[in-house]
């Protein structure tokens, strides 16, 4: 199977979405001239071209695309060619209204925007496959073609009758018989027992709480139904161009697709990433998405979309202060990206995203933005040695979309507890300690990790529980957050309050009751080396068995109960954290657990705000702070060379605001 | 007609909703063992069993229920058997989509949750009646049967076409002819005159303010339509088991059902009560619901549902600190409950409410929760002498659902003014003074009450106005809140601004204008013995005639206008309060009015946080505070005995946090 | 063509909406008695009488209206007769459901309120026209008829299929062919190209951002569709009564109608105005609406609706403190109103607006409110000399509904930036400087204005850009706010970031990036004579060319960039303001620009809170403050006479709280 190396060929790919159909042909020549000037290697063409390629059902208008691809090829620009199936033309919704999605209330989601297709619609699927096949037949042999890009940010949900039929077929496959389904969904509750398959529907607008099993399976089904759309197109492409890798771009940290299942179907994993420049935790968020994407890819990956400046879909859309676009681009490379791309090449003058920045902004080639785009292109060329190298990580955060899905339903102990919030808090704590972190599925082989963190996995399968126990028993260090392992695969609460295996692993006798905290409420806890700290979101009336208390709650109804415990299990150690400690405490706690597990940060003695990541033998240093920082370097008699400048550095380096260095290993100086 | 005594037979009923269909039969035996251990007397079975009892249209699967009832009976546990009609099986919505409710916008409310039936649907009604008849035929003679429980928390609204036809029939009955309807609804306004019955629809989604008469009548109709569902089932049961009382459980302080009309149709009145453990006014709220329910029942009543710990439908669901479940259970008994029950017996492992606590929680029989459940069961056995006794009250709050309904529409002087908020504020003031309070309909005979409070009755019929005037004329004391008596039965503003009768009764010349206050805005008022206090929500440019000012507004546009007035009328006194005084002032004001009316608190000299209620000859003392309190006892030479402990107490008692005593009368010591 | 003079005939019209069908005929006589007492000259009859006039399709019941008009005429009260077409009778929605509007989601908007018609429905239009013709035929010659009032506050939007067909016809007219439409809407973006007219729909509920061209054109279309309804009725009336002026009443500052296009079709321009008495900026808001209405009318206008006391559609509805109703009524006259009317004459006892105050309130003729109404009527008689005179203004604010429409779509740089907010802020600054201000269309002849302000015109046509440049070139002073001129008529971003013409006019080289500010965020700027001030909402990385900086940003990423610039262009001056300065700074800035342009306030040395306006030779002085103010008068040897009191004033006058004087010119004393 082809992979990202077939597209990179030793270079960091650089480019963006190119939508020539928005412009007269006269502009195309200018585009290619500017792409060359900016160091663009690769552009993604045709993501939203369906109405242009197939102006009416069955018609084909490919000539303009022939010309675009030939022009690009002549200009030395390679192509990631998209199937245009994310946005069907108006004729599809108009002639085949049953292809339009319906929401939970049965309201039709019309065309006039994008993404208006029902993933279960055979009409949509059929048209999508045919245009994909024709594109592959026509351009599969084009010399500029380097990658296929299928669809775009899959994520449309639908509750229509066609979806209902498809959902039933999916459920039949999953459960075989109705009895198993009734059992898994617990339909004995509230008189929900299904007597025939025809009765089953998506979880539509209802009076009160929806059956959780139905809701969970509908999310599973929707992810799978969308994945079928992807794999059908992928198969059509792979059959015709077995040597060209296929990708589709993920939304970052998106709940709608099972990221592990999807990544397994892609030759190349790619993601879109748009941190808010005003968000003080934007860099940490970026690192999380990058680590997750790398983990999904199992190696290098593609940053398919980012913004040269502001986006246009926030309430207030902030531009990027000078240096930030470069900093975040290089952060992606540091964390495994072998491609740095933008939405979009030339900023639109019309349409829904005309205020989303582009590599060539409205102000044109003499703008500051375009100048910065060109500078980045030049720098990325210097990073060719980095391409294909790994980002070693000995810490892992476990994440599972199925568990996430189960926790977003109503009727939970606290609606304030969010999987995303906990993932971000825990990952940020590790990131601030410069502990490079992978993400892993709860069934994954964890033996190579010194530290495994579980911010929250409400739903844990038997296999996952056994996996965690085996990992710790074999010497691993596990740090586990609250409300973990509560339910089995069917969102059925495990008997006894806390599962038997978890009780042993974590050294807990029982959790008498959960005491979720209100918005703005905080507990105080105190531990010997942790000192006093606040905890939010959650607390528990926790009774340990073998575990030793690390910190205890002070005051309130739970005065004296342990907030953090630590349990020796087998030859390893398991920690349990029954609240969300404030950032410094969570950092201290995970830092201590890492230290005890023999895990050191990427670089010792880093000043705050500076990120250090090793990629292969290369040390990336990124100053996210707004003030200069001095970073002591690991000893190397002959110093290290910054790939970006060619300058050698010895005992320490000074990084200005938003500065980046990529230091080559000492031996490369020789 | 049977009543609650037929079920209690001299005991406080103790138990909860029991849903054996959620569990394998092996668990049932364990359930009965634990029920016995917990002192359970009675369980409610079958509330959500329809899909199990009638797995497909017309089928019957009763064998399992035979076994359950026999097992319970053998175990000495009595049964409140439910008709399962609150939650139709999926086949009903699937085969008869017209049974599904539609909201104001016409959106279908689907199955997959519960309560998805249109009360006007003949198909639903027919199926509901048939399963009810079959249950009554089969189990009417079962020796364990003590009570029927019909439906559950009726309250589903529907705006569908079938509902429209039913609404029209209801309106024909109410008005006879269209002219009367047009007159009552004031359809001359905004060109809304109806020319034929077929034109009339429920108040669906519209451009702007809905006709208030239509909106009010639709609420009346909906309450009646649901009540028809109830009475149809009740009649079927009563015809078969004339000796078994029938109940249905109310939501607490629920707007959707006319509580007076419904209670009149029940043999036993029952309610579900779930105060938020974090709400600082939870105990006052509980007392209100209990007083209201007792007043609806005209005597002892059933606490049908409460929670052993947290619920799961709030944003953040708090458990009950140690002692609170017991305290609130005994508060219900103090205020007239002869049954203390929970939702549900065994906490579910699946379904929408699996995080709602149960008497047997996930952690099982060795949990703290179950231990507390057992302790309470034992204590309730000691309270048998209390069963059937009355709670004497010489104060009453007038409440009327029709008035409430009229005030929740848009287009009122202030959307901040809420009937519930005023009821709670006024009841709490009386409760904090330990003035035991009934609720009464505005048409009720008030002669036995020393004090009648009207927090707000916007809509007052002629009969009610006459009733109030007669009450005061005959020597009663009335305290009346603002925006009372503004409209007649049809929500037609009474001529002259303030009704002639009210002007005389309250000693008001006119109210020139209402000056509602903004959120966060407060006026200052001052009175001789009231001192200075703040008022919120409302103020008025009030001009008294015969009334004397009790307090006047200080500052602002209304400087000097009276805020509180007092009028001698006949041989009685009428007070009028034109703002919502802050809690201490409202307490002082109502306390003074009570004092002048010769009404003393349940016990003099009570410390704050301690509630005292007389039930028959028994004195309940409940410490809602978190610190111990010392309560002076009414003199009794030989002391009083606490039924719960058997200990005698003399001049005073000490009540720890959340402690309760039930002191028997002195003579019972003899 | 007839105009307002045909109705006023030298008097200030005084009256309100009169809805006799809400009352028994016995009340009518009383109404006329009270109208005479109150000085009412004119009432508007029949606005919501359709169901009464046409109780079933085709029927006519006009007798009652004959009697009403005759009674009024006998009583000396003139009539503004309304077509009743704002609120179709229930039979129309019931028999012709396709006349009911549907919202973006396809939800039907039912009858039971008002305004439930689809402007594109031929059935509605046909019925509306026929009742209009019949009214005109019957009453066109009635001696009491002085004006026609068509519909009421047009503004209903609809997204139904009939609307879709109508929208397509409108688009065909606008664009001729589909290619032009595709080009104008930029449908190349997101695969939205239309292949046939039948595919085009209104912008219905969609997945994400709607096509901006479609959204803008749909607003244009809706305004036009409603206008067609108006003009069809107007034409029917004008054909029958060419001498009677026709009006329809606008909502104040309403986005839904193109105010310039609509005003051009009316003989008389009228508006409804309901400032919140609690709004501290209510008087400024009133002045804005009055200035805008006068500008639409090109002279005197009609205040068709205001409230004698509180309205009933706010969350909390405040009455008017003593004097405020008079003050605001006279403010309208000061700013050009020749008619002061209310909704409604007699406060309803039923229906959706029974808590909206009336001239005759529930409390009746002896109420304070009615007394004040009568006092105002008497005073307005004294203002007859003012009728028909002009309000001279040498400053203008440019406003265009098309630009407003383009800015309310999602996907803009900042959702906090609102056209209305900017209009209000800028107008208020001028109003506080007592610079009387017109509003003008961007294509209007501006030569007579000394100062032209553009708070924000995002969308500017070529013609408008040329017009602005010519105005300044010829010596005008332009003050221009941020985010102006960004797009052309099709909401297509003009090339180069800032349009070439604007660059020259404003002396800007380029705007590198917009830096919109968050809610609560403020920048600090400083200028030589402006001093330090805060700016909110917006900032820019602005690079001037020929313009001189007036103030610069201090601190932050944009430290040192100009916030306000000033450019000499031709013989005039253009200012550009790249943020929203705090009120005092905006006032100072516009005041300085006016001063440099030779524009003086209406009166020098006015104390804060006092408004001065010249209307013809009459000087209106209004004290909006709650404390007395002393106002120095312009020198006039023999003094000036207050038309309201007949008293002469010389060097200065004292105005109590809410006081008003209307000072006649000195020569009129002779």
TrEMBL record, chains A, B, C:
GO molecular function terms attached to this record: beta-galactosidase activity; metal ion binding
CDD domains, A to Z: A4_beta-galactosidase_middle_domain
InterPro entries documented for this protein: Beta_galactosidase_C, Beta_galactosidase_Trimer, Class_I_gatase-like, GH, Glyco_hydro_42, Glyco_hydro_42_N, Glyco_hydro_b
Residues annotated as binding Zn(2+): 118, 158, 160
Catalytic activity: Hydrolysis of terminal non-reducing beta-D-galactose residues in beta-D-galactosides
Beta-galactosidase trimerisation domain sequence ranges: 393-599
UniProt KW Calcium keyword: no
SUPFAM superfamilies documented for this protein: (Trans)glycosidases, Class I glutamine amidotransferase-like
Beta-galactosidase C-terminal domain segment(s): 610-663
EC number(s) per entry: 3.2.1.23
Domain Glycoside hydrolase family 42 N-terminal: 17-382
Gene Ontology CC annotations of this record: beta-galactosidase complex
Keyword tags: Glycosidase, Hydrolase, Metal-binding, Zinc
PANTHER family recorded: BETA-GALACTOSIDASE GANA
Entry's family note: Belongs to the glycosyl hydrolase 42 family.
Protein name: Beta-galactosidase
